[in-house]
Amino acid sequence: MIGPCDVMKHCAVLTLVAWGIAGAGCSPDAPSPATGLTGIVTRGPIAPVCRIDLPCDAPFTATFNVERSGRRVTQFQSDASGQFTVFLAPGGYTIVPNADAPIFVPAAQTKPVTVADTGTLTVVRLMFDTGIR
């Protein structure tokens, strides 16, 4: 005969197993619908001599890889005004420009970023060097 305590133990085990199965497809890098990065990418200098009356940097379009622990998690593309949004789980990442980005040695210009665990997008401005001197 099974007593009430035995039923509760059995239910607890089934609940844990069900949670394990439901959570099996989840990854710590899985995008969250509410967190990630949003912002602008700029490059500069855009002229050999910067002047007070003209901007010395400018937004640009490019594709960027998002890496965590040296592994690509996802990628995003900035638009013509340099704006981008990418949904990511909270934590630390590295942004790596693709080789065709119009900047000096793109692969060497990685940017560390942290997605805050606030339930909102983290705003960033990523600045890259053109190599113009």
| Helix vs. strand class | alpha+beta
What is the level 1 CATH name? Mainly Beta
- As a percent range, the share of strand residues is 35-45%
CATH architecture: Sandwich
Alpha plus pi helix count: 1
CATH superfamily: Immunoglobulins
Helix share bin: 10-25%
Order of helices and strands: HEEEEEEEE
**For this entry, what is the oligomeric state of its chains?**
single chain
* Computed CA radius of gyration, to the nearest angstrom: 22 Å
C-alpha end-to-end distance: 85 Å
How much is the average pLDDT? 82
Summary tags:
38% strand, globular, 133 residues, Immunoglobulin-like, four-stranded mixed beta sheet, 1 helix, four-stranded antiparallel beta sheet, alpha+beta
Task: Please summarize what this structure is.
This protein is an alpha+beta fold. It has a single domain (36-129), classed as Immunoglobulins (Immunoglobulin-like, Sandwich), CATH 2.60.40.
Commentary on this structure:
Strands 1, 2, 5 and 8 form a four-stranded mixed β-sheet that branches. With 133 residues, the chain is of the alpha+beta class. It has one helix spanning 4-23, and strands at residues 36-44, 58-59, 63-68, 71-77, 83-87, 91-97, 111-115, 121-129. Strand 3 and strand 4 form a beta hairpin. Helix content is 15%, strand content 38%. The protein has one domain: Immunoglobulins (Immunoglobulin-like).
Topology:
Elements: H1 4-23, E1 36-44, E2 58-59, E3 63-68, E4 71-77, E5 83-87, E6 91-97, E7 111-115, E8 121-129
Parallel strand pairs: 1-8
Antiparallel strand pairs: 1-2, 1-5, 3-4, 3-6, 6-7
